[in-house]
Amino acid sequence: MEAAVPAGAVASAIDQDYALVGEGLTKVFGGFAAVKDVNLAVRRGSIHALIGPNGAGKTTCFNLLTKTLSPTKGRILLNGVDISRLRTAEVARRGLVRSFQISAIFPNLTVLENVRVALQASYGTGYHFWRSLRAVAPLNRRAEELLEQVGIVESRGTTAAELSYGKKRALEIATTLALEPEVMLLDEPTAGMGHEDVEPITELIRKVAVGRTVLLVEHNLSVVSNLCDRITVLQHGEVLAEGTYEQVSNDERVVEAYMGGVDE
Ligand SMILES: Nc1ncnc2c1ncn2[C@@H]1O[C@H](COP(=O)(O)OP(=O)(O)OP(=O)(O)O)[C@@H](O)[C@H]1O
């Protein structure tokens, strides 16, 4: 007869496989449950998408996982550690980083300066406008490396305001990488983009995801099918289906949810 596996052993095996886990996540806004008992496990090293029709609860769920909102019920585990009660900065220090919104980019600073600000934030020194150029010079090399990685190093001297939309997104990814994330959370990375920018950003995400874990909310289903290993579909705040793109796109309930909604 096989010896019973102690519960702790199962839990730690799960911790090793999954970088980020949401357990029984629930968020109630004034009596309305936007997210209900959602269980989500993001496998280490994977690109995982959260999709669903409008109003399905994706943003709320994402905000819970990124600690922008606190759950009414449930908990969040990062590498097996309960981070539900930790602040965003502490969670970022532990490797869980949400991509900055474009609005968080300083439009009047150059591309290089923007990445340097992020690096200074990550080194805990903060950004001091009065610091001499010599004092910040060591950061320039790292900033240039990051810009190289995201393919916009030739724009280093351009002010962020002058960048195309696609390059702004690339800059946003560089500022996220400055925090050395182990788990990256991307909020609709291709939202508002023209056709010509979607593919380069998809390829960039694929590239920076190597050696990391990525969770993204994305409306563009062709990006999801092209990029993501696993997909969780939400509807009315609950998990409707989970699997590969092929599995969920062949699931009648998912087809029905999308046909019944107004999503693209
Ligand atoms: N702060 C809030 N207060 C009250 N209701 C909210 C709040 N935030 C979200 N909701 C409601 O929760 C539900 C889920 O919203 P959420 O934005 O999470 O969905 P979504 O799937 O991201 O939708 P979309 O694709 O349209 O962005 C919606 O009915 C929304 O109106």
UniProtKB/TrEMBL annotation:
It comes from the Bacteria. PROSITE patterns: ABC_TRANSPORTER_2. Residues 20-261 form the ABC transporter domain. This is ABC transporter ATP-binding protein. GO terms for cellular component: plasma membrane. It comes from Aquibium carbonis. Pfam families: ABC_tran, BCA_ABC_TP_C. Keywords: ATP-binding, Nucleotide-binding, Transport. GO terms for molecular function: ATP binding; ATP hydrolysis activity. Signal peptide: none annotated.
